[in-house]
């Protein structure tokens, strides 16, 4: 097993924390995390993939161990996160990569992919949409998306910035909750209690409504380039269930769909299964 290194690098004055493991010169896997987590969600997957690949897993600004710039000088939007992650890729010297996207990592990863055409050699999808669909999980956000008022923002915060919501992301749709380490959702919730972290989350949850053009551009790119694509999502996800994840084939007809019997945070209980699927897939397409 390769050791994991915990490093930081400056990107436009923001200290970006990242996990790195594997052998330099091996094919690179870039892992982009979801909300409200950090690269910590990839601990097991990094360990399982680093024997063969060179793995990088950064924390976004405002997440995990990266800097959390004040909102007065850094706009927490997906465009901004995508810009920082694109510059991160260049600064750490990644030329080509396999992109692993989950949750927020999808819309951030789409931006990285579109800023670096032809550098993405394969795509691994875990519980993020390419064709958005409706979900009751987003219901409390709809009034905030519609009017953007302080009152709607406060109501969204009262719902989403809670331990119950974070815990349910991990446990809903999981067949055996005893396989999910509670420290994962407890740590995510703890990080959300930092000064300003809740406001950062609300900024990004509000910005979800702007992602339509990015989805369209990503669909066009994937449709034309047809990169090797593997979908290893939890099929019982309340946000992006199995039927939504199957729609990747509408854009990339040769996408391999290998749904697992889990929920939104499928790595929490199915990391070994997902790693095995990835090893087989990447061993054939790279």
From TrEMBL:
It comes from the Bacteria. One of its GO terms (molecular function) is hydrolase activity. Keywords: Hydrolase. Residues 27-270 form the AB hydrolase-1 domain. This is Alpha/beta hydrolase.
């Amino acid at each position: 097993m390769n050791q994991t290194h915990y490093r930081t690098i400056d990107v436009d004055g923001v200290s970006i924390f990242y996990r790195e493991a594997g052998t330099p010169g091996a094919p690179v896997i870039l892992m982009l995390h979801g909300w409200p987590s950090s690269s910590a969600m990839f601990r097991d997957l990094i360990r399982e993939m680093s024997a063969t690949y060179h793995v990088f897993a950064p924390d976004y600004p405002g997440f995990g161990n990266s800097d959390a710039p004040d909102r007065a000088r850094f706009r927490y939007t997906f465009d901004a996160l995508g810009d920082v992650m694109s510059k991160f890729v260049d600064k750490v010297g990644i030329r080509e990569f396999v992109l692993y996207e989950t949750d927020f990592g999808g819309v951030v990863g789409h931006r990285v992919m579109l800023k670096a055409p032809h550098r993405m050699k394969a795509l691994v999808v875990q519980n993020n949409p390419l064709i958005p669909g409706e979900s009751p999980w987003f219901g409390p956000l709809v009034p905030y998306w519609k009017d953007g008022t302080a009152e709607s923002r406060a109501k969204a915060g009262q719902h989403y910035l809670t331990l119950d919501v974070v815990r349910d992301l991990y446990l809903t749709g999981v067949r055996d909750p005893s396989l999910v380490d509670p420290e994962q959702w407890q740590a995510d919730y703890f990080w959300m209690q930092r000064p300003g972290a809740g406001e950062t989350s609300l900024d990004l949850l509000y910005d979800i409504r702007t992602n339509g053009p990015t989805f369209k551009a990503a669909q066009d790119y994937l449709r034309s380039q047809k990169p090797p694509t593997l979908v290893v999502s939890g099929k019982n996800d309340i946000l992006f269930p199995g039927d939504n994840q199957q729609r990747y084939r509408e854009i990339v007809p040769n996408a391999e769909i290998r749904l697992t019997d889990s929920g939104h945070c499928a790595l929490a209980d199915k990391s070994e299964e997902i790693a095995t699927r990835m090893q087989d897939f990447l061993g054939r397409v790279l």
